[in-house]
Amino acid sequence: MTDSPAKQNPAQQSRGRHAKPPSALSIRWRRLAGGSPGGSRRRRASLAGAGAATLALATGLVVFGGVPGLPGGGAEAPRAEVAAHTGRPAPATAGVRPESVEDPDEVPEAVPYFESRDPEKKIARHVTDVRRSGDFLRVYTDLGESDENSKPALSLCEWTTQFLKDGGDDDPRVFVHGKSSDNGSVVLANKQSDKDDCEVPETR
Prior knowledge:
Elements: H1 10-15, H2 24-33, H3 37-63, H4 77-86, H5 110-117, E1 127-133, E2 136-141, H6 151-166, E3 174-180, E4 184-191
Parallel strand pairs: 2-3
Antiparallel strand pairs: 1-2, 3-4
């Protein structure tokens, strides 16, 4: 009578000759999940608690600042934080330009008025600046000291007087200035009252 083959472990029968041995990770997981009923429950509770804590941490990151790079998250937060530490303002919106500040004493519309009276700009080209100075309107030119009471000086004085009247000034006061090597700016023509004809007294 032949001896019956020894009973083999069912796990060994299912593995077969070419079955892959279990990995170290699966063995460790089975040990954590196995054991006594009480120990198994404690391990499951521990694993569940760890999963809940991870989920709460991820939720807090999304709600209170977001994860950098995620939509709706903290893509802008790092830039704002860096700006706060460096003392530099956050980048301004592209295309926004500061408004230019104009000089309240400048009268830029005067030169186009002169050019309308002088289409060839034979006289208007001498004007370098037109500015208000109290009750006066001063016309600065590149004319020389010898151009006192000259046609260009008197014409500019008359045109400026009419320019002020057209603008509603009933009592225009005008000075036309030229260059001088000694005094800076000399008066070539002026109108200080309604009786003035823009000529200045001879100074030579």
